[in-house]
Specification:
By secondary structure, the protein is α/β, with parallel strands linked by helices. The protein contains 19 helices and 34 strands. The protein is globular. The N and C termini lie far apart (about 70 Å). GO terms for molecular function: serine-type endopeptidase activity.
């Protein structure tokens, strides 16, 4: 063979290697559009980049999933790692994001009443416990905000169940003229499903299909349309903006009352970007693909929404530059759209926070003053109250057994007590109460297994890893959920009594539990793993056992064998707390349409509750006072946020300047990073976080006077310094003579090493707060500092 005849083979090897490389979806991000191209020209421009790395024009076209054309400049396409690397090296490309599915965090009748909003117009209907006039204040606030009328809330989630009474448009006026969106049709969803309440709906599935293959209705148990098969999207949408519905309750009549969203007259636009995974139970959660979410945010911005609510996140820290939600939210904030997102459900472990970008309002979860109290009675007289929303009842005491003692042959020892499918032996379980332990498998699934084996009741025991937070679920047998300490007592009773018996009392709804609120154990915690100079979460809102509208295609337990239909259902998670804040944002936007996103966040944060209804510090799940990494600035108070006195404002350009520190350069063609960039803690934020302090740090802040008609005011500084540190302000008095006037000040934080002996360890955070107070307002901010 001639040497020259080998040359084609040499050239063919890298080509074959490239073909062999597994293609994956990447997002190629260019930043902000310059506004000099039409939509068609933008797409052609994106095609030209693909053609530069692809072998043919046909390959370039077929690889493209999305061309982001409105605010976000970029595209999503199938690329090999080599092709992605070549594009990433181009000067005009800001980042190339390797797409990955995100499981949304699974992250009402009582919650809005609990935070001081009550919608009825007749004062004779006010709750009898309205001692402090809280609900009268709430009604005035709702009236002033016109119940959110004129504000459009865009919601990214699993879609919507349009037939729910929560989305009725009865009595509503015409759709706002600013609306530019569409009502996208699809399977079981047509244009008539949109109305003057649900004004828009879209769905995004291209990224999902690249991961899971062509959409299959049977395998996915989903609708190729904006319709919600899951319940999560319907629940979050109705929590934020649902209409008032009288006589709403969960199955069994629990939490009976009037259900309403925070802004019941605000308009809803749904962006379905989360889908059921194929061939799995819905209880395992939906998948939200990065490129689909970014396309949804790009459309929401162009459609004219005022608020974007995102109950989606990840437990893995993602740098801003590689975080589709963070990038999309920054483009939204430029257009003064407020973005709220869930903090995540990976608590109480520290450093588990999701959505940490400072231009996002990050929401943690707290509790209500409502519980569902049942009871457990053992044959030895031991009695304990338990939480339960199970409608099934026991008529009398029944024999009590431990699951590990009644399992079928062949069940692994480590799973023997967990009541997994087909694990229990019917002849040993029939007619009995079974003690099952949490761990592998779903809580609901354990009750289904007890029922299958003929059991009449279940005691669902937390393991030490679950802690003391029990979850009431709509089980299929009478159920009592108990803590690890109670589990130990039950096991001891079973071991020592020859004929152990138990009786499970049915649950009932109980209000005005104290203390309330407290931070839930599942709510993700700071510090931020992306930038510890930004204190997150920002705020907490109710997220435990929230009652809201539900999908007609899903039972309350989200397990396929559950054929029950529930118009309203309980769900817990920061996914539920996020739309509470989104509803409050809609009301604030209606009252203060010119306020920036940062001003609204500031108003919510600086007026938040830091004490519970017993006037004591809000507790964490361990019974100790919650710190700002769990609580943020506190439990939100919408009525107070309407008149915060002062706000910490921040412009889009301020975020771009901050971005120079964290790799977000070149996003806007009109902005260039300066040679000297201020430290991250100088971003004008309503809280302060200083990691690894050694000596003294001076933090700069600016406040704007927005006092409610009080053009002349004087604010005095006070602080409760973190243990081992001092916190002082320069100046310590701020005087204003007009609305809109700005004042700068410095916060000087000093490590007092002589006071730190055996008190503060290196890297360990201490917490405090500072506030500015006049005759009418207290503008309070949390402080977190760690020693270097």
């Amino acid at each position: 063979m001639k040497l020259t005849s080998l040359f084609p083979l040499f050239f063919l090897v890298p080509f074959l290697a490239s073909c062999a490389e597994k293609k994956q979806v990447y997002i190629v991000y260019f930043g902000e559009h310059q506004g000099d191209k039409s939509l068609q020209e933008i797409e052609e421009h994106h095609h030209s980049y693909l053609q530069s790395v692809k072998e043919s024009e046909e390959d370039a076209k077929s690889s493209l999933l999305y061309s982001y054309k409105h605010s976000i400049n970029g595209f999503a396409a199938e690329l090999t790692p080599d092709e992605a690397s070549r594009l990433e090296k181009l000067e005009e490309v800001i980042s190339v994001i390797k797409s990955h599915p995100r499981k949304y965090e699974a992250h009402t009748t009582r919650s809005w009443e609990f935070v001081g909003l009550e919608e009825e117009e007749n004062d004779s209907d006010l709750p009898k416990h309205d001692v402090d006039g809280r609900f009268r204040v709430g009604r005035k606030f709702l009236k002033k905000a016109k119940h959110g009328d004129g504000i459009i809330v865009g919601l990214l989630d699993s879609g919507v169940w349009p037939e729910s009474k929560s989305f009725s448009d009865k009595g509503m006026g015409p759709i706002p003229k600013s609306w530019k969106g569409i009502c996208q049709t699809g399977v079981a969803f047509n244009s008539s499903h949109c109305n003057r309440k649900l004004i828009g709906a879209r769905y995004y599935v291209k990224g999902y299909e690249r991961y899971y293959g062509s959409f299959n209705v049977t395998a996915n148990k989903d609708f190729l349309s904006p319709r919600d098969p899951d319940g999560h999207g319907t629940h979050t949408a109705s929590t934020a903006v649902g209409r008032r519905v009288n006589g709403a309750s969960a199955l069994g009549g629990f939490a009976m009352g009037s259900a309403s969203g925070g802004a019941p007259l605000a308009r809803l636009a749904v962006y379905k970007a989360c889908w059921a995974k194929p061939n799995v139970e819905k209880i395992d959660g939906n998948m939200c693909i990065e490129e689909d979410m970014l396309a949804a945010i790009d459309d929401a911005i162009a459609d004219g929404v005022h608020v974007i609510s995102i109950s989606i996140g990840t437990t893995d820290p993602v740098p801003y530059l590689l975080d589709g939600i963070a990038i999309g939210a920054l483009h939204a904030v430029k257009r003064n759209i407020v973005v709220a997102a869930s903090a995540g459900n990976a608590g109480p472990k520290p450093g588990t926070l999701s959505n940490p970008a400072p231009w996002i309002i990050t929401v943690g979860a707290s509790t209500l003053d409502r519980s569902f109290v049942g009871g457990l009675v053992l044959g030895n007289g031991y009695t304990i109250k338990t939480e339960s929303i199970t409608a099934f009842k026991m008529d009398k005491f029944a024999p009590l057994v431990y699951a590990a003692n009644v399992v079928a042959p062949g069940i692994a020892l480590n799973n023997s007590a967990q009541c997994l499918p087909n694990s229990l032996k019917p002849e040993l379980v029939s007619g009995k109460v079974v003690l099952c332990l949490r761990g592998a498998g779903s809580r609901i699934g354990k009750g289904i297994e007890v029922k299958r084996a003929g059991g009449v009741g279940m005691i669902l025991g937390n393991s030490p890893a679950n802690g003391n937070e029990t979850m009431p679920d709509s089980h299929f047998v009478a159920t009592a959920a108990v803590t690890p300490t109670v589990v130990d007592k039950i096991l001891q009773y079973i071991k020592t009594d020859k004929k152990p018996i138990a009786f499970i009392k049915p649950g009932e709804t109980v209000y005005k539990n104290k203390p309330a609120p407290f931070v839930t154990g599942f709510s993700s915690r700071g510090p931020s793993m992306i930038d510890p100079n930004i204190l997150k979460p920002d705020i907490t809102a109710p997220g435990l056992n929230i009652l809201a509208a539900w999908s007609g295609a899903d039972g309350p337990s989200k397990i396929s064998v559950d054929q029950r239909v529930a118009e309203y259902n309980f769900v817990s998670g920061t996914s539920m707390s996020c739309p509470h804040v989104s509803g409050a944002i809609a009301l604030l936007k209606a009252i203060h349409p010119k306020w920036s996103s940062a001003a609204i966040r500031s108003a919510l944060m600086t007026t938040a509750w830091m004490t519970n209804d017993e006037k004591k510090p809000i507790q964490d799940t361990n019974g100790l006072p919650a710190n700002p990494f769990a609580l943020g600035s506190g439990q939100f108070r919408p009525t107070k946020a309407a008149d915060p006195g002062l706000v910490y404002d921040a412009s889009y350009r301020a975020y771009l300047l901050y971005g120079c520190l964290v790799g977000l350069t070149k996003i806007d063609p009109t902005f260039k990073c300066p040679s000297k960039i201020p430290p991250g803690y100088n971003l004008n934020y309503p809280s302060i976080a200083i990691p690894n302090l050694n000596g003294t740090v001076t933090v700069k802040r600016t406040v704007t006077n927005v006092g409610n008609g009080n053009s002349t005011s004087t604010y005095l500084f006070s602080a409760q310094a973190p243990l081992g540190f001092s916190v002082k302000a320069k100046p310590s008095v701020l005087s204003f003579n007009r609305i809109g006037q700005k004042k700068r000040f410095k916060i000087v934080v000093t490590a007092q090493k002589e006071k730190m002996m055996n008190v503060t360890e290196k890297g360990h955070y201490q917490f405090g707060w500072f506030s500015w107070t006049d005759r009418y307002h207290v503008v309070k901010s949390p402080v977190a500092v760690s020693l270097a």
